[in-house]
Write a structure and sequence with these properties.
CATH topology of the domain at 27-169 and 233-262: CNF1/YfiH-like putative cysteine hydrolases
Number of strands: 12
Shape: globular
Largest sheet: 6 strands, mixed
Radius of gyration: 18 Å
Order of helices and strands: EHEEEEEHHEEHEEHEHE
CATH architecture of the domain at 27-169 and 233-262: 4-Layer Sandwich
Strand content: 15-25%
Distance between the termini: 25 Å
CATH superfamily of the domain at 27-169 and 233-262: CNF1/YfiH-like putative cysteine hydrolases
Helix content: 10-25%
Strand order of the largest sheet: 2-3-6-5-7-11
Length: 264
């Protein structure tokens, strides 16, 4: 059993969140918050997404601030996230001019920064016990149900038993209200998924409502895939307005970033 390391491996900025996991020394990872940055409301202040309606110059300034504050040797490789099940290998990308359409990326090269943007969806960071690869996954409920986590884990050149994962800030089990149609999608995959949906109410049109535990669903799926070292999943974007953006709470809002890279 791995010994959990309570000390972050790259702590240098109080506005960042660092995974509490026993990753190898050469694996660096962090998650941003909404603190800092130059974006104006409703994107205040450290919005890192170019597709949400924020001023482009403000976003680019925020991204450069991220590079400087995190001490990155290069810009993160931003993705064109569209709730797909696509995983891209960053080592084969010739240019970053056109962000690839994908919702997960991985690399074995030092200095390449895998990153995903979220504002309620699940950011999942993955590495292996040897510290030779890293992966970042964006999983909303649609992507999760479609298989983005499973396909990413199965595509990595490492056995699942030798992987570890950290689930970053996402909408929590006490805040994510969904309808019967969402529950049905997950239960159709496995009846055991029903345990991650807490009955909430029945509205006037007899539509059942549930509270969905997305972090719980991801932990269960990772465990089923053979990934037994799973950490995080306890930070709620919806409830913590001071630190996080939440699309469910605010509608028009910014995005935080979860990054992981190798430093040798």
């Amino acid at each position: 059993m791995l010994e959990r390391n309570s000390q972050p491996n790259n702590q240098s900025d109080s506005h960042f969140i660092y995974p509490d996991w026993p990753a190898p020394i050469g694996v660096k990872a962090l998650c941003t918050t909404r603190l800092g940055g130059v974006s104006l409301p409703p994107f205040d202040g450290f919005n890192l997404a170019t597709h949400v309606g924020d001023d482009l110059n403000a976003v680019l300034a925020n991204r450069q601030q991220l590079v400087n504050r995190a001490g990155l040797s290069s810009q993160p490789v931003w993705l064109n996230q569209q709730h797909t099940v696509e995983l891209v290998c960053l080592d084969s990308l010739a240019t970053q001019d056109n962000p690839p359409i994908a919702d997960a990326s991985w690399t074995q090269e030092s200095g390449r920064v895998a990153v995903v943007l979220t504002a309620d969806c699940l950011p999942i960071l993955i590495t292996n016990l040897a510290g030779t690869l890293v992966c970042a996954i964006h999983a909303g409920w649609k992507g999760l149900a479609s298989g983005i986590v499973r396909q990413s884990v199965e595509a990595l050149p490492e056995s699942p038993e030798r992987l570890m994962a950290w689930i970053g800030p996402a909408i929590g089990a006490q805040s994510f209200e969904v309808g019967e149609e969402v529950r049905a999608v997950f239960v159709a995959t496995s009846e055991l998924n029903a345990g991650f949906f807490k009955p909430l109410s029945v509205d006037s049109h007899l539509h059942k409502k549930y509270l969905a535990d997305l972090p719980g669903l991801v932990k269960y799926e990772l465990n089923q895939l053979g990934v037994s070292f799973v950490y995080g999943g306890d930070l709620c974007t919806y409830r913590d307005e001071s630190q996080f953006f939440s699309y469910r709470r605010s509608g028009q809002t910014g995005r935080i970033a979860s990054l992981i890279w190798l430093e040798r």
